[in-house]
Amino acid sequence: MTLLDQARAVRENAYAPYSRFKVGAAIRAASGAVYVGCNVENAAYPEGTCAEAGAIAAMVAAGETELTEVAVIADAPRPVPPCGGCRQKLAEFAAQEAVVTLATVGGAVSVTTVGELLPGGFRAADMAHAVGPD
Ligand code: THU
């Protein structure tokens, strides 16, 4: 199964009773293992979490902190663009060149990179001049 197929499969488990917009995400980590996530909404709307965040949490919980490839899919008019927060979350664990495949359930696909999704993003290296805790 391709990474996109795994994102498509986990999307079925999305809990999205409020938006009715189900999203699936799959991440390939440096080890080659794949971690999946779906969006999980909440009656307290801001408590909902994105599919990408779920997949990242699964990867980190498994002991991995480097991702090489991402796929995201939803029933959208265009290949689903990750929200700003998820672009930042993906960049935390990826090289700029990491490939991101965005897709629609209808079959449209767009291939981009983490760097293209978040040009100029804030990274750990930007804190190089910060002092440590007292
Ligand atoms: N959503 C994701 O899970 N990932 C995206 O890339 C875009 C948006 C979710 C959040 C919310 O549950 C629903 O889609 C509508 O915003």
Q: How would you describe this protein?
A:
- The chain is an alpha+beta fold.
- The chain has a single domain, classed as Cytidine Deaminase, domain 2.
- The chain is built from 4 helices and 5 strands, in the order H-E-E-H-E-H-E-E-H.
- The chain has a 5-stranded mixed beta sheet with strand order 2-1-3-4-5.
- The longest helix is centred in the middle third of the chain and has 11 residues, at 51-61.
- The structure holds tetrahydrodeoxyuridine.
Q: List cofactors, ions and other ligands.
A: tetrahydrodeoxyuridine
What is the count of DSSP helices, taking H or I runs of 4+ residues?
4
**From N to C, what is the helix and strand string?**
HEEHEHEEH
Indicate the radius of gyration in whole angstroms. Answer: 15 Å
For this structure, the CATH topology is Cytidine Deaminase, domain 2
Distance between the termini: 50 Å
* Top-tier CATH class: Alpha Beta
Number of strands: 5
List keywords for this structure.
27% strand; alpha+beta; binds tetrahydrodeoxyuridine; 5-stranded mixed sheet; Cytidine Deaminase, domain 2; 134 residues; 5 strands; globular
Please write out the topology.
Elements: H1 3-11, E1 23-29, E2 34-38, H2 51-61, E3 67-74, H3 84-92, E4 94-104, E5 109-113, H4 114-117
Parallel strand pairs: 3-4
Antiparallel strand pairs: 1-2, 1-3, 4-5
Bound molecules: tetrahydrodeoxyuridine (THU).
Tetrahydrodeoxyuridine is lined by residues 16, 19, 21, 23, 39, 41, 48, 50-52, 72, 80, 82-83, 86.
